[in-house]
Amino acid sequence: MFARTAWLIFRKDLTVEVRSRETIATTLFFAVSAVLVFAFALVKEGRVVADAAAGILWIAIAFSGTLALGRTFERERYTDTLRALMLAPSDRPAIYAGKLAAVLAMILAAEVVLVPLVAFLFDAAFLKRPAMLAGLLVLGTLGFASVGTLFAAMLVRARSRDMLLPVLLYPIVVPVIIAGVQGTAALLQPAFDPAVVRFWLLLLVTFDVVFVVLALWTFEAVMSD
Amino acid sequence: MTIDFDRLEIDGVTRYYGRRRALHNVTFSCGAGEVVAVLGPNGAGKSTLLAVISTLIAPNGGEVRYGSHTARSAGALLRHRLGWLGHELQVYPELTARENLQFFARLMGVSDENAAVAAALASSRLESRAEEPVSGFSRGMRQRLALERALIHRPRLILLDEPFTGLDGPSSDALALRLRALAQAGTLVLLATHDVDLADQVLDRAMVLQSGRLTDVVAGAGWRQAYRAATRREH
Amino acid sequence: MPKWFSPTAILCGLMFVVSPVLIARSPDESAMGMVYKIYYYHMPSAWMFLLAPLVCGVSSALFLARGRAEDDRRAWAAAELTVLFGALTLITGPLWARRAWGTWWVWDARLTSSLVGWMIGWAYLILRRYGGPGSDKLAAGVALFGAVNVPFIFISVNYWRTIHPPTTVVPKLPVSMGVPLWFCVTAFLLLFILLMTMRLRLEVARTRLDALYVALDE
Predict the structure, then answer these.
(1) Most buried among B28, C25, C106, C125, by the most CB within 10 A?
(2) Above 50 in pLDDT, residue A191?
(3) Do residues C118 and C91 touch, judged by C-beta distance below 8 A?
(4) Would the CB atoms of A84 and B104 count as touching at under 8 Å?
(5) pLDDT tens across A153-188, in order?
(6) Do B169 and B206 reside in the same domain of the chain?
(7) Range of A114's domain?
(8) Per the structure, how many domains does chain B have?
(9) CATH number, domain with residue B54
(10) Together in a domain, B73 and B134
(11) What is the pLDDT of residue B201?
């Protein structure tokens, strides 16, 4: 029942997003613009400050991810469909799981374009170790999205929700950003040490497990009045 | 496992937000087969009362009983028997009419999904537009679809918040007839509105809310005059 | 106010007045001389700064589970104390660092995480102020997530090289350094309890006032 409901909501969200293309287009465009702004800000004598590529990548993911979260739930708020989902007889955490999967898919789709773009513009060789990079991206985005989906859902009925989402979200996901940036930067080191990357991957896995479980536990309590 | 009920009892329900009292000691009961209106001006607490009955908001005092069950005792099973149609209609504009109905049928755990969707499309007279996205529908068409969405799992209690808003004459009449038919089939229909110009034959009774209190219950043929008199008395 | 409040407040005040004397009498540390003595205020502040979010997190978890208003009040008070003691820690720390190591701030793991924890406290308060009705439950969710983040702070200290003294400094200190430290810790703990009590009383009074307003309407 739980898996069925989560899958149903995941498929519905993807269908809606693919049809309207609004969120994926604006998320991607915003991420690319952010990358360009950073490029202009950080270029010195025609070359980018070393190691900036990892940071730029993850900041772009964080900012555009916040946009994607905001848009997804704004749509549910506008049509009041979140209320219809809450009134369904299914397990409420399944709603969270379905929405998380959909948001994760959207942000990962944007990253497919973003990562090669950053690698190209900043001459950053992280695509040389695709397995570890993919691990960092997937686990890091999952950590970000797990907290973000819960907070964005919580804020649907709150005042000042647009301002509050980044205010609440960014401090909590700092460990994810740090792990992502440090792990990605480690991939770029001339003396590559896989143990460093493995540590950050382990931290991300732990973070993800802890916070997804916590979100599933608290979703019902936090969403009810 | 399923549950059912044939009486709805609202017993001393109170709900406040800080210093603002949204509902105060509202007591009322009604049974399956009735069409009951919650009347009152804007800000009277109609939407809050409906939200409490739908189990989405817990009251600060009092309780709502669905037969012998309460929201806490029955939990998710109760939601099988409740339907909601709000002012925003709760349909996805990017999906087609059929996709919307299929989604909600599966979400609500309807067993004979295809039959239910076909029947819903027939009752709402949207069969010819079933494969079109809802974003292209008029308000009246969306309303009909949304009503079917709310009824797809055949709830015992259907709650409607301002359902007549934005409907023209013929659409209003059609909705009124549909509600009457639902009641005759055993559903308890509870609707909130500030619009007094409803067809006389729709309502059995009406509860009048003003500033969170239940000030009057009007029934019978002269309900419109009784309602106007009740609201005039307050001012 | 409960009966023990005034005597405790007086005791706490006296302890803070006496503490500079104890601190001045303690021996100078070999490398840093007199400067390190701000440590006697910095460490207790830092410990309260770790205690407060734990209280906030546990109270928030209880509030989400049981829905009792007293848990919510305690969480809110603890969040305010997080911001207060965080400010004290983040002011005394850099003052010490500047004299001891020549720099105001280092972006190492522990300092960064403390700053983040402080921001989470602020985020909680902003949410309660601007979130509108229902923000008590939302804030509880944020606090719970914030509190669960605390272990990640300790993990990062042990992994990264850092110029911040490692956590095992305290037990190894000779007694002459230990006595003033524990004295200050006690003073700060009393302060924590006093402030918490006052804040809770304020919130209870506010709730009673709201209830009176509602009752007046009848």
Answers:
(1) B28
(2) yes
(3) no
(4) yes
(5) 989 888 888 889 999 999 888 888 888 988 898 888
(6) yes
(7) 2-223
(8) 2
(9) 3.40.50.300
(10) no
(11) 67
